[in-house]
Amino acid sequence: MELNEDDIILLEEIAYTKLGTKKEYTKTYQDKDLGLLIRSITGLDMQSAKEVFSEFLDGSLNTQQTQFILMIVEYIVKNGLMESAAVLIEENPFKTAEHRQYFQRSYRCNTTDKI
Asked: Out of 11, 16, 58, 85, which could bridge 22 as a Cys pair, Cβ 3.0 to 4.6 Å?
């Protein structure tokens, strides 16, 4: 289920008045969008994440490439988002030499940017 504008307004009201103040929120989370914070805490629906990556999961990739994309999807489902492509070389399960080399050789530059 997708959040609409009214949902966001209600969540902001709760966060900024019932749980604390906007100033406290900003001090703690800087400029982090409330929606991104919530997704990073709760994760994301697997189907929604797969839909975002449907262009890559349409059958045009080989098995290893598809597995790599599914690893990215699983990471996003668990963490709510991937803030930076640096995650693909700095964090588990991506930081192993095998995955890092595979990622670098498997995708053309424009595809890497899309991912």
From this structure: 16
Percent of the chain whose pLDDT exceeds 70: 79
The residues near 32 (Cβ < 8 Å, ≥ 6 apart) are none
Give 26-40 pLDDT, tens digit per residue. Answer: 999 888 888 778 877
What integer pLDDT is reported at residue 113 of this predicted model? 57
Under DSSP, is residue 42 helix (H, G, I), strand (E, B) or coil? Answer: helix
Q: What is the largest CA-CA distance in the chain?
A: 50
User: How far from 12 is each of 1, 20, 77, 79, 109, CA to CA, in Å?
Assistant: 18, 11, 23, 21, 38
C-alpha to C-alpha distance for 8 and 90, rounded to whole angstroms: 32
